Amino acid sequence: MSIDYQQTPVLKASGLVKCYGSVTAIDNADFELFPGEILAVIGDNGAGKSSLIKALSGALVPDEGEVWLDGQKVAFNTPMEARELGIETVYQNLAVSPALNIADNLYLGREIRKPGFLGKYLRMLDKKAMEHNAKAKMTELGLLTIQNMSQAVESLSGGQRQGVAVARSALFGSKVVIMDEPTAALGVKESRRVLNLIKEVRDRGLPIVLISHNMPHVFEVADRIHIHRLGKCAGIVTPQSHSMSDAVAIMTGAMEIEAA
Predict the structure, then answer these.
(1) Cα–Cα nearest to 59, from 44, 81, 41, 74
(2) pLDDT for 92-110, tens place per residue?
(3) Angle at 76 between CA 208 and CA 45, to 5 degrees
(4) β-pair partners for 38
(5) What domains are defined for the chain?
């Protein structure tokens, strides 16, 4: 897939700073995500990549710096504000409710109400509409093994649960999808399914930010790789320009390149 890096980034940050007392989690960090790309964010533990992503998704308010979405300056005080503007995040712990069914999980917090009096005044949910839309989205993403949208999420495998979380982000994310370690707790087969899902979501027009420690996965699916070190961007590489060993060397400070 050809990506035009001359166009305006979908999501951009400049000069982000976040301090916790004497500890600087984000140190004048910059970030750019372009339309149609999978941008991996990698870094050693404590590098500040999680804080960076939280600042971009509304889970953390930076002390300094600016964030732009589609060229417009924005400021998120909560994850809900970011979601309302089209930024969806799939967290490492999945953030699904095991006791609820698939459709209810997809629409959790954004339920569809029945039209007219029943929905407006009695606040009755339109279960059929939610199940129909949920099944359509799961089928669209190739999750054909899940046909019954009313089955509880706790009855699904780890890969299928991750699929539900990814489907929810694809259903509501209109601008950006952020995925935090989506394959961390999965086996080989289920990791493969999730990687295919990531590519499928990107191919349907949603740019993706992928946070991962799994270097083979990063080098397989990423178009560009943002390497974070000591609270800031240490450089941007591609799977074509640098090897996994190079990326690790930049992460640890053994190799330096000019930051993008």
Answers:
(1) 81
(2) 665 678 888 988 988 888 8
(3) 55
(4) 208
(5) 11-84+176-182+206-252 (3.40.50.300)
| Each residue's pLDDT tens digit, 227-254 | 999 999 999 999 999 999 999 999 999 9
- State how far the Cα of 178 lies from the Cα of 79, in Å rounded to an integer: 12
pLDDT tens readout for residues 15-71: 999 999 999 999 999 999 999 999 999 999 889 998 999 999 999 999 999 999 999
Length of the chain counted residue by residue: 260
Long-range contacts of 81-87 (CB under 8 A, 24+ apart): 82/56, 82/57, 82/58, 83/58, 83/172, 85/175, 86/173, 86/174, 86/175, 86/176, 87/11, 87/56, 87/57, 87/58, 87/173, 87/175, 87/176, 87/178
Bridge partners, 185 (sequence order): none
The structure tokens 């992928």 sit at 210
Phi, psi of 179 (to 5 degrees): -120, 120
Asked if 177 contacts 90 with a C-beta cutoff of 8 angstroms, the reply is: yes
